[in-house]
Every structure is written in C-alpha cells, then in structure tokens.
Amino acid sequence: MAQIRKLGCDGMRTNSRPELKVPQVSARQEILTSLVSALDSVCSAMSKLNAEVACVTVHEDSVIAVGTEKGRIFLNSRKEIQTDFHKRLKGFLLFPKE
After folding, report:
1. In tens digits, what is the pLDDT along the chain, a chain of 98 residues?
2. What pLDDT, on the 0 to 100 scale, is given for residue 52?
3. Per-residue pLDDT at 98
4. From its phi and psi, is residue 60 left (phi > 0), alpha (psi between -120 and 50) or beta?
5. What angle do CA 10, 8, 74 make, to 5 degrees?
6. CB under 8 Å to 60, separation ≥6 — which residues?
7. pLDDT given at position 9
8. For residues 34, 38, 43 and 49, what is the CA-based torsion angle, rounded to 10 degrees?
9. Rounded to 5°, angle at Cα 65 from 61 and 66
10. What angle do CA 34, 38, 42 make, to 5 degrees?
11. Residues 61, 9: contact at Cβ < 8 Å?
12. ∠ at Cα 64 (60, 70), nearest 5°?
C-alpha cells in the first residue's frame, strides 16, 4: 500500500567494487520500514470498515504516501498535496514557531 517518492538522492551507496551496488540498510531505515508497515496495517483495517484513508508522511527527503486504494489514487492524482506538505514541514523544521 505504501508509495515512497524521493525528493532528493536515491539513497544507493556503492562498494569499493564499482560493479556492485548494494543499498545500506540502517537501523533508522528498518524503523521507518516497520512504521510504514504498521500504517499499511491500519489502512487495511480501516478499509474493512468501509473507511477510506490517505496518509502522507515525510522522512528526510522522502515523501511516503500510504492509504487505502482510493486514498492512494487521490494522493497520486494530487501530487501537489504531497509536495506542499513536504515544503511546509521542511520550513517548519528549519524555522520552528515558538
């Protein structure tokens, strides 16, 4: 159910051997994957109750869209929602209001 859009680099790192590209899985990435999986589970449970869900979350330069099928279709048809959300959070995190 989750869709991740990178707004920055692709996160791939290379070994000393140029022919091999191996993504580095960090503890932070494992936590993020676990949380996205949990959000997917919540969306699945909500869909069984005939609810529609659309969730946008941001991690660094990645925008993660999670939801039921209709929720994802809605978010995918309106990419500006994801982009605006990312811009707003980035601005908020750089200049928090007191």
Report:
1. 555 555 543 333 333 444 445 455 688 888 888 989 999 999 999 999 999 999 988 887 788 888 999 999 999 899 899 888 888 887 776 555 55
2. 94
3. 52
4. left
5. 95
6. 8
7. 37
8. 160
9. 140
10. 170
11. yes
12. 165
Contact, 39 vs 32, CB < 8 A?
no
Tokens linked to 62:
């990645």
What are the angstrom distances between the C-alpha of 90 and each of 14, 17, 36, 57, 76?
28, 36, 20, 12, 21
DSSP string spanning the chain? Answer: --EEEESS-----B-SSTT-B-----HHHHHHHHHHHHHHHHHHHHHHTT---EEEEEETTEEEEEE-HHHHHHHHH-HHHHHHHHHHHHHHHHS---
Q: Which amino acid is at 75?
A: L
Residue whose pair of structure tokens reads 């978010």 in the numeric block: 75
